[in-house]
Amino acid sequence: MKHIQTPKPQFQPPAMTTTAPSVQNKADISLRNQLESPLLQIPPEVRNEICKLAVLSTFEDDPISFDSLGVIEAEHRLPWTHVCKQLWTETRTLPFAICAFTFGTGRDYEVFVDTTSAEQRDAIGTLNLELMCDGGEMRWAIDILDEEDDEDEDEDEDEDEDEDEDQSDDEDETGDKVETRFRPAFPNLQKLNIEIACFERRDNAIVKRWIADLKRNNKGVVLRIKKRVSR
Q1: Domains of the chain, residue spans
Q2: Per-residue model confidence as pLDDT tens digits over 101-157
Q3: Is 114:170 a contact under the CB 8 Å cutoff?
Q4: pTM (2 decimals)?
Q5: Strands, E, within 109-231: which ranges?
Q6: Which of 26, 44, 101, 184 is the most buried (most CB within 10 A)?
Q7: Which residues make beta-bridge pairs with 196?
Q8: What residue spans carry the region label Disordered (predicted)?
Q9: Are 117 and 172 in contact (CB under 8 A)?
Q10: In this structure, what is the dihedral angle of CA atoms 139, 140, 145, 148, given to the nearest 10 degrees?
Q11: How far is CA 85 from CA 18, 42, 77, 225, 231, in A?
């Protein structure tokens, strides 16, 4: 019996093509979106209000969780903003502008500042701080909330210039140096809500002095401070 060997199929290598749109294609796509997209035909002011309602209607109190590799588990809450570049451009800072961000520890605050861009932080208007009246938390709060004297900063800048060159600075995702004090980090902040949990009555005097300094050094920001005694 004669054995017939089946020939191996011959596969042609894929053609060298690119999926990147040309400048003309981008212009055509943009024009078609303007003419045919019902959403893009709506006035920008109305479209922004729709986007705000979409963001606010999906609120969830879901703390970020990490797996064993330290990877943040999350999903994109507004996938429709990735439909086209115009929508993404119009809404990329919207969640930061209309949402209030709450921090319970100094580490949470520092991670947020380090992982957001200056543009995103510029859009933030409201911050919430939930503090415990202990040495570590209050020291951290004083460090980020108290404004330093500008003249002292200028004098120290020249003295520490050489030292700073040898030290690594924190950078955000854009590679820019990050200022962790809240006024430089959030230049357009309008409201700061602070809740302080005091474990003993004697802590009230400490908190009272700190609040007085805080109000004096941070004029222009609406401060809402609530104290409570935890038993």
Answers
A1: 27-55+66-92, 95-149+167-231
A2: 888 777 888 888 888 899 999 999 988 888 776 666 666 776 666 655 444 444 444
A3: yes
A4: 0.59
A5: 126-132, 191-198, 222-229
A6: 101
A7: 131, 227
A8: 1-20, 148-180
A9: yes
A10: 70
A11: 20, 16, 17, 41, 53
Q: Is 220 left (phi over 0), alpha (psi -120 to 50) or beta?
A: left
Q: How far is Cα of residue 129 from the mean position of the Cα atoms in its chain?
A: 15
For residues 21 and 151, give the distance between their C-alpha atoms in angstroms, rounded to a whole number.
53
Residue with tokens 């999350």: 74
| 8 Å CB contact between 129 and 192 | yes
- Mean pLDDT over 180-195 rounds to 81
Query: Percent of the chain at pLDDT above 90?
Result: 3
E strands, the chain, are 65-66, 72-73, 101-103, 126-132, 191-198, 222-229
**Cα 26 from Cα 10, distance rounded (Å):** 37
User: From CA 152, how far away is CA 190, in angstroms rounded?
Assistant: 26
Decide: helix, strand or coil at residue 71: coil
**What DSSP line would sit under 84-120, residue for residue?**
SHHHHHHHTTHHHHH--EEESSHHHHHHHHHHS-HHH
Residue range 15-62, pLDDT digits in tens = 444 455 566 676 776 677 767 777 778 888 888 788 777 776 555 554
Where in 8-115 does DSSP place strands (E)? 65-66, 72-73, 101-103
Phi and psi for 130 in degrees, rounded to 5?
A: -110, 105
User: End-to-end CA distance of the chain, in Å?
Assistant: 94
Instruction: Enter the DSSP assignment of 171.
Output: B
Instruction: Name the residue with tokens 């003993």.
Output: 200
